[in-house]
Each structure stands twice: as structure tokens, then as C-alpha cells.
Amino acid sequence: MVEINLEFSGGLELLFGDVKQHKVQVPAKDGAIQVLISDLLVWIRGNLLKERPEMFLKGDSVRPGILVLINDCDWELCGRLASPVEDGDTVVFISTLHGG
Amino acid sequence: MAQAPGVNGLCGGTPASCSSACDRHGEEARGMSANGASVRVTGDTSDGGGGGSGETAAREGAPAAPLCVKCRAAPAEVIANQREPYCGACLRASLLYKVKTAINKHALVQAHDAVLLAFSGGHSSTVLLHFLSELQSHATTPLAAAADRGKTVFRLGLVFVSEAAVLSRPHYDGDADVERIRKLAAPFEKRGCRVHVVRLEELFLKGRSQAHQAAPEGTMPRGSQDSATKGVVRNDSGDQLEEGRPGYSVPHTDGLAGAWERLRAMVARVADATAQEDLVEMLRTEALQQVAVEHGYTKIATGVCASRLAAEVLTGTVKGRGFSLPADLQAVDRRRTVPVIAPLRDCVIKELATLCTLNRWPTTFVPSLDAGPTARPSLNRLTQDFLTLIEDDLPGRTLTILRTAGKLQPFPFNAFPALPPGHRARLQPAQGTEAAAEPADGVNLCALCRAPLTSAEVQDGGAGERGARGPESEPGQRLGADAGDGGNEGRDTAEQARAEQAEERRGAAAPAGDQLRENGAEVGSTGGESDGRGVEVASVGHEASNGDSRGSSGAGRGVVPPGPQSEARPGGVACCRSCREQVLGGTGGTANPAWLHDLPWLDRAGGRAAEEARRDRMRNKIQDFLL
């Protein structure tokens, strides 16, 4: 179980009750030591996402156009879905789907 | 928690956590130096060191954190430029460099300018606001500007246009959005950036043109809101509308609420979702122009970025706007009273969004027709999603699309005078009348979307009875330095189009002069920003049905260079083929629908006088700057 700070922006917050910041407890998959981003996504879908999951998720991953930063680091540099998340980490999801 | 970059992008103290590219860490932190490593010492300059601070140092199970490829000292935080890992500071430096380059190359902002930033609260406009604000505070004094009445730095203001009125949810409360926007703008307001908030429906306030004319310099016409009148809606007598739904209650008073109804009615006339979005975009552009003129701004800066432009390339292709497409993709657009600049045009949205996050620059999301919970799958929306998909698949495609479209030749109005399009120029000291220069340079423009017209489109509007014009003013031919091939291209397609349309028109009935006069146009009336020259080009034939609306770049009147006025037909305005097919739903030879003249910039009542008054005020302001 790890405690994670979640942030949603770029309009994603609307899918989460218009709340940008969440503090959540996420369990690891059975038998696993670490919590990965993939676990986090599954957890979010089941516990936090209020509506229209297709706006946030696509298959196993996030919808294209949504940036994921783990502690201010692009998840592309950390292993994407396989990136581990540790206690106290901050994971930010930013939608770039709408113009600025 | 991650490294702390400090407040508002200020230095966090060490090179690795500095996200403001401040001078504290050496000159290299500012520019694009490939050799930054020597300055950005964090105590370990060897490659294998894993960089300085930051939680991205190797953690259990994760690959070893790569270093930024630019400075090779800080750990990489983001993939920039398609495939290169950058640290936050270098990302910021890279984007700032792109903006500065764009500004210098196209002379976008000069010391004597007053720049109005179109602010939406999103990532692009937030980055633009921070960058322009920074440039403002770091502006050096050009020699010539010393003579500029002591004004050595460009003035900056920002405007938010609330489109709550057009959302499909009736009585959507836009005031909460406005509050959030004001909160974001507050720090900049403290630094002297004037904040304007207007509602889109204010364009439709009865007698607004007169209000423009009558309002003494520096005052706001009643009904529009700025920093002084937060969130209060008053009718024309100044009485506060009753409480109920904040801002949008009591529809029967003819003030803002009446304008609200008129705006919604106009948008509702357009059935197609894409067309509605395009029409709203045109209205928004007009609103920006009006605010800029009212408050004496010389430039409008939008946060239009590379991703948005790439989407426009694709939608423009689908909408059949091949001839006019390049006009909308450039850094400069001088077709309207106030030139519009796009300093972020070379930046992709991913980098802009990441920068906001790394720098803790707050943003907000304001729903619009094509963005948010009620967004419909319009062509615009689908194209953006498609683009996101292919960019996600292979980063770099956005810029590739723009590079392809870069082969299209811009128009003369896509650069400031004395600078042919694409010309490289250092930032000049106060030049003459860039902002007031004749934007259209004699090129005919669509009444709706301001797309340059081919000769066929003009002819079609004028029933083929245009007065003879010299070759230098032939529509479709680009005037100015780069006439060459572009002109021939325009003419060839124009020839073809003309032949086609002649076919179509053969069956059309003779125009009913009375019907056309009903539309209220005057013969020999002035055009828009072409200094009162020219005549309105008439349209021919039957009443067209409602159709879609297109338009990514706003509107104006279609004006032709002066020809013998007696040969002009009264009644209509010239539109491009794309608008005619998608906006007006007709084919060649059909007349424009009457509702066209409800558009604010085509509003005959008081429009012409107000336009001229506006233009004169603009000119006087420019004069003042130069004296």
C-alpha cells in the first residue's frame, strides 16, 4: 500500500468531481512488492473516476494526449506503465487535448 | 516530493532545481548553449553520476535516470523536441528561445507596442503570459525608444472572452470561470498588466457601434466589464439585473440579456457542429479586435501553438481552403484593424503543458463548444484527436505537418511592412505605422472568414460585372515581394473555378434587385479596414439556405479595390467558396442569407461611421506613440 498524491489538470479534473488534487492509498497487485503506474490506473478507474472512463483511459494506458509526470518526471523516462510509484510520490495527469 | 522550483518560476536555488533560467547559474542557463555543463556544476560532471538532486535518481526497479542532453548536468525530466530528454530548465530555455526568435524574426513586438494577450487560462496562453511578462521586465532600451515619451517597454494587457452564452447547456454559469481567470491574472495585474473580461454576447449589444463612437477615450461602453466591475451585470440604464442565475437572469431587459439571446439565436441558426464552432471563433476574433481598439492596443497576441496550427492545416484541407490556408498559419496576420501575432507558433502543446507543470504555473480549464464535457464530435474536434493520436504514435509529426504547410506561400499581410514574409530581421527600434498599415494590400478578402479570394470568388459575388482593374490588383494575385508563383497558382484555379461556376449559374434566375436591396447594403459603401476604398461586392441569385459556418480566423467585409462604382451591384458581400458551401450552404450563384448582416462586423446600422471613427482613433494613437 502506498500513499500517492494525484493531480489532474487541463480539464481532466472534471472527470474527478472537479477536484484537481487527491491523496490516495493504492495497493499493490497481489504478490507484487511494488506498485506500478499500471496498478495505479486500474485503481483510479475503479475508485476515483466518476464518469466517462474513455476520456481518461484507453485500454491499459491513458488516452493519447494525456501527459503523465511522476515527481516532475515524464513517465516516458521512467518506464511508462512499468514505472514504480513509491510512498509520497506525486503523479500528475495533464490533458493536452484542448487548446491553451 | 519533487525538487522545488520556487514560486512563479523563480530560482529554486541550485542549477538543477532552477526553473527560471535565472542569471544566478551563469549565462548559459539562458541561452541554447551546447556547452552548459561547465557552468551548471552540481559537483559531479561525469556522465555516470546520475546528475544532481532530484528524485529521479536511480530507484529500485527503475532504469537509471538519463541526463538532460542539452546541459548534461541535470537529470532529464521531459522528452522535448520529439525525442530528446531535457531537464526543466533547459525546456524553459528552449521554449523561451523559440519565442524570442519568433519575435525577432517577424518583428512581432516592439518597444512602442501595446500588446493585448488573448487569455484562456490554458497551457498555451499561460506560458505566453509568463514569457511576455518576462520579456517586458527584461526589455532593454532601444536607442530610438528614448524619444518615445519615456515609454521604453511595451505595454501588456490581457483579455478573457467568456463564451458561456453559447454553450449548449442553457444558462451555464460562466461567472465561476471568470473568477478563476481573474485569480490567475491577479499576479500580473499587480505588475501593471491590465485585465479585461468581456462576454461574447457584448458584440450584440444594441447600439454597440454607437457606443464605440460615443464613448470618450479611455472609458468602457456600458455593458462590458473590466477589472472595475467584477461580475455584475447591468442593463442599459445601469440597474443591476436581479439575482437569480448570476449574470444571465431576467431575459426581458434589452441589455446584456437581450444580446445573450441574439447571440444564441445566431449560433442556433447554424445546424452543423463544426460550422457553429467556426462561427463562434469568428465572433471571438471580432470581440478581441473590439477590445483592442477600444483600449488602444496595437497588437493582439494569441497562444496559438504548433499543435493547433497543424490541426488547422488538416481541417483547412478538408474544408477546401487550399488557396487561403497559408494566410492562417503564419506568425503575423494583418488582415484586421489590429494585427494578430502568434509567438508560440513553433511550440508543441506537450512542451507547453509540461512547462506549466514543472514551473507550477497554475492553469484552469474553461469549457467551450469544442472542449469539455459537452463537446460534440465536430470536424475540428476529430482532427485534434487524430493529430494527438498520430503524434503520440510518433512524436514529431505535428512539426512535420507544419513544415509541409510551410511550403505554402504566405501573403503580404502575413508580415509587417518592410519585411517580406519569412524575412529575417533583428528587433528594430520603433518603426512607423506597422499596426496601422493597410492590412489587405489590395487583396480581396472573404466577408466571413477573411480568406483571400480568387478572382472567380470575387466575380461570382459580383455577377461577373466588376469594373476593369489593373493587373496589379487582380484578386488571386499576391501583391508584394513574393508575387511570383503564388499569383499564377491563384489565377489558374480561379480560371477553372470561374468556368465551373459559369456552368452552375446558367440556370439561376436573374437577381432580384429589390431583394438584394432589402439586405440593406449600400452601393459604394465602405469596406472594412481598407481605408474606405472600394465597394461591397454584390451576390446574385436566390436566397441561400442556412448552412455551416466556417472560419478559423475571423471576419471582415469583402472589399474589392476601387472600380467604377456604377457597375457594382447593391446588396451582398463576397464570400470564399469554402464559406459559401459550408457557411451559407449554397453553390455558386446563390445569394447570401439575410442573417449574415446580423454579424457584428457586417451590421450596417452605424457600422460604417463607427468603423471610421475607430480607425481614426487607432491612427491617432499610433501617431501619439511616434511623437
From TrEMBL, chain A:
Function according to Swiss-Prot or TrEMBL: Acts as a sulfur carrier required for 2-thiolation of mcm(5)S(2)U at tRNA wobble positions of cytosolic tRNA(Lys), tRNA(Glu) and tRNA(Gln). Serves as sulfur donor in tRNA 2-thiolation reaction by being thiocarboxylated (-COSH) at its C-terminus by MOCS3. The sulfur is then transferred to tRNA to form 2-thiolation of mcm(5)S(2)U. Also acts as a ubiquitin-like protein (UBL) that is covalently conjugated via an isopeptide bond to lysine residues of target proteins.
Name the UniProt record assigns to this protein: Ubiquitin-related modifier 1 homolog
Family per record: Belongs to the URM1 family.
Keywords on record: Cytoplasm, Isopeptide bond, tRNA processing, Ubl conjugation pathway
PANTHER family given in the database record: RURM1 PROTEIN
Cross-link (Glycyl lysine isopeptide (Gly-Lys) (interchain with K-? in acceptor proteins)): G100
Intracellular or extracellular location(s): Cytoplasm
Species per Swiss-Prot/TrEMBL record: Klebsormidium nitens (Green alga)
A single MF term (Gene Ontology): protein tag activity
Family annotation (Gene3D superfamilies): 3.10.20.30
Pfam families: Urm1
PTM-bearing positions, type 1-thioglycine: G100
One GO cellular component, as annotated: cytosol
GO biological process, one term: tRNA wobble uridine modification
Metabolic or biological pathway, per its Swiss-Prot or TrEMBL entry: tRNA modification; 5-methoxycarbonylmethyl-2-thiouridine-tRNA biosynthesis
Post-translational modification: C-terminal thiocarboxylation occurs in 2 steps, it is first acyl-adenylated (-COAMP) via the hesA/moeB/thiF part of the MOCS3/UBA4 homolog, then thiocarboxylated (-COSH) via the rhodanese domain of the MOCS3/UBA4 homolog.
UniProtKB/TrEMBL annotation, chain B:
Keyword presence, Iron-sulfur: no
Basic and acidic residues: compositionally biased ranges: 488-507
GO MF annotations in UniProt: hydrolase activity; nucleotidyltransferase activity; sulfurtransferase activity; tRNA binding
Main location as per UniProt: cytoplasm
Pathway(s) it belongs to: tRNA modification; 5-methoxycarbonylmethyl-2-thiouridine-tRNA biosynthesis
Signal peptide start-end: none
Alphabetical UniProt keywords: Cytoplasm, Hydrolase, tRNA processing
Record-linked InterPro entries: CTU2 (IPR019407), Rossmann-like_a/b/a_fold (IPR014729)
Region listing for Disordered, in residue ranges: 33-59, 211-252, 419-438, 457-572
Family: Belongs to the CTU2/NCS2 family.
Protein name listed in UniProt: Cytoplasmic tRNA 2-thiolation protein 2
Species name: Klebsormidium nitens (Green alga)
